[in-house]
Specification:
Layout: H1 3-12, H2 20-26, E1 38-41, H3 43-49, H4 53-65, H5 68-73, E2 74-80, E3 83-88, H6 90-97, E4 115-119, H7 131-149, E5 153-157, H8 165-177, H9 180-186, H10 188-204, H11 207-220, H12 224-248, H13 265-274, E6 278-281, E7 284-287, E8 297-300, H14 308-323, E9 327-333, H15 337-349, E10 358-363, E11 366-368, E12 371-372, H16 383-401, H17 408-425, E13 433-435, H18 437-440, H19 448-464, H20 480-490, H21 492-502, H22 506-525, H23 533-556
Parallel strand pairs: 4-5, 4-9, 9-10, 11-13
Antiparallel strand pairs: 1-3, 2-3, 6-7, 7-8, 11-12
Helix pairs in contact: 1-2, 6-20, 8-10, 8-11, 9-10, 11-12, 13-14, 14-15, 16-17, 19-22, 19-23, 20-22, 20-23, 21-22, 22-23
Length: 565
Amino acid sequence: MNEKNMAAACLSELLNDFSTADIFDMLEYPADRKLGDIALPCFKLSKAMRMPPQKIAESLCAGLKANEECANVFEKIENVNGYLNFYISNDYLLKNLNGMSNPDYGSSDVGKGKTIVIDYSSPNIAKPFHIGHLRSTVIGQSIKNIHRFCGYECIGVNHLGDWGTQFGKLIVAYKKWGDKETIEQRGIKALTEIYVRFHEEAEKDPSLEDEAREAFSKMEQGDSECIELWKWFVEISIAEFKKVYELIGADFESWNGESFYFDKTDEVVNALKEKNLLKLDNGAYIVSLDEYDMPPCLVLKSDGSTIYATRDIAAAFYRKKTYNFDKCIYVTSAGQSLHFAQFFKVIELMGEEWAKDLVHVPFGTVSIDGAKLATRTGNVILLEDLFREATEKTLEIINEKNPTLENKEEVASAVGVGAVIFHDLSNNRIKDINFIWDEVLNFDGNTGPYVQYTYARASSVLRRAACPDADAAAGYVPAPDETALVKTLLRFPARVDAALCEYEPSIISRYVLDVCAAYNVFYHNCPILRSSGAEQAFRLRLTAAARQIIGKSLDLLTIRRTEEI
């Protein structure tokens, strides 16, 4: 049990009308350490208890001082202006310091015996893997890492957009303006060019849209030429996607895209018919959701072809049957929130109790200098190009500051790609991001490179120092900057738990910046290698703990560690 859990548990004994979980959520980490390490704003209790916050704080303070378990963790508890402030004792800090160097520190078994399926990344075949796809990929991978760290069995699914009318458009475009040799040489870039051209030409000649619909209809009917072209587009795309995934560090247990569920949609349609949920509407079949204040969910188009909602419903049933998940998480843009609300509701109306275990985790949009991304207009920044530029810039910095560094190219890749990932994950996921090159590749301030430099700094200290005996620091009294760092490190389990519950990797990125700031203050104000005896032993232990937690935070964010920069 960490200190925040302890505070919540002790308070719950005095607040019978509030659960421990409710109290835990009310507790805060004050920005100013002078106001305690943990604080309870009692105004949150005032309405329910019909008492002024000051009186509540006073009463709770008196009750907690008589709690022996609480006294073992907190050296002081005081009420100030309606806040109950908790101050962690040095004895508790020192007792927990050794465990902070453990690779499992901050993990939990909350997910033991539970399985989650997480659907993320999921780019469209034959379209470029651009900066807009980065969000789903890195947010989803980080959420997966955090769940795995907390004991869950995780099934990552890359639900590729490998079916739909866009393939009809691409087939038409290829037959009119493409050639095999160019596409074999230039891959997705060449496919994108003819896709963009299709939309340009369709504005002048709308009949092209009819041709595209006809081509996709032939695909659904198994036309050999169309299927052969489609398979070729898929192969080219996946090969290029995997290059990017390797750089990012994303891994998937399943690559079943939309096409995988095409032959499973009939079962869904038949079940909906049996349950009298399907209605005929202008030749199409829908599920009415009027009573839930949502537009109808389209299941079959008027020409009898399926739509992605049908395939998503089929996919959910397949995943439940195959993995028996406890949660199925979908990491997609907030713009798709209605779609997920609709098909989740359809599954619920089908009588499936597990519909409650379907979770949509939305994120904000990415724009380029304020302009919306759009593949059909060619307004995209390819991830491969972005990572290459970030790596090149990092290499320039390394050549200037540390030209003799071994494996410079490998380090530059880790730091450059990490800079891009951290830039995304340092933002709250629901926040819209305006992509500006100078900001993404700014290596100063609260950035990914700053975190990696700090990790490398701690690694360097430990390489140059002799490993002290475990008891060599016994009796040492920490200085204020040392205490501040230990207290920051102590928050790691609580931050992991919050990131897990909120599906929010930015909690980890903001936390690790706090750790790095505290470590660098400690590093500059408390000489490590020039100290000796118990003092040096303690500072080395503190450095080892900081290095471990920074490194684990990078792992959770899917950013490669670098021992030297």
